Amino acid sequence: MTAIAFTGMPGSGKTEAVKVAQKRKILVVRMGDAVWDEVKTRGLTVTDAHVGHIATEMRKTCGRDIWALRTLPKIEGDIVIIDGVRTYEEIETFRKKLGGVTLVALHAAPSIRYRRMLARGRMDDALNRVQLEERDKRELEWGIGSVIAMADMMFINEGTLKDLRVFVNKVLDAIVP
């Protein structure tokens, strides 16, 4: 199996990166969907507060790789893009189960990421800069900084959307058979 996992702070461009793979008909599995499913199962609305609380709670009670374990059943075929790795344990679980994963980190300055998130208005996004900073802090506490630091490839996503798409296509061209 060929597996590529994208990581990065909120608003760094992961969603836009996986759109490139989807256009190439590559399966994309979004780890956040597993969290959203749990939030909905509990009868809660998908908000930043609920998603963050459930994600943290489940990591504490079920293990730091819980979302990887819940994502694995959705992975099929020979090629997969995994969107949203946030802990070292998640990437290790994927590597053990899938036989290897190329980890790609996207990075952008907080001011750029905050502007993007406020503009996109996704239902689990924070609504103001203070909430965005709290979300960053929460994800750093989960260990995303370590995951970004151990990435096989890094892209500073502070340019145009076209720049990001060119980078992702080059990664896919180099890795996908």
Report a brief summary of the structure.
The protein is of the alpha/beta class and 177 residues long. The chain has helices at residues 14-23, 31-41, 48-62, 66-71, 88-98, 110-120, 129-142, 144-149, 161-175, and strands spanning 2-7, 27-30, 79-83, 102-107, 153-156.
Description of the molecule:
- It is a single chain.
- This protein has helices at residues 14-23, 31-41, 48-62, 66-71, 88-98, 110-120, 129-142, 144-149, 161-175; strands at 2-7, 27-30, 79-83, 102-107, 153-156.
- Strands 2-3-1-4-5 form a five-stranded parallel β-sheet.
- It has nine helices and five strands.
- It is α/β, with parallel strands linked by helices and 177 residues long.
- It has one domain (2-175): P-loop containing nucleotide triphosphate hydrolases (Rossmann fold, 3-Layer(aba) Sandwich).
- Helices cover 56% and strands 14% of the residues.
Compile the SSE list and pairings.
Layout: E1 2-7, H1 14-23, E2 27-30, H2 31-41, H3 48-62, H4 66-71, E3 79-83, H5 88-98, E4 102-107, H6 110-120, H7 129-142, H8 144-149, E5 153-156, H9 161-175
Parallel strand pairs: 1-3, 1-4, 2-3, 4-5
Helix pairs in contact: 1-9, 2-3
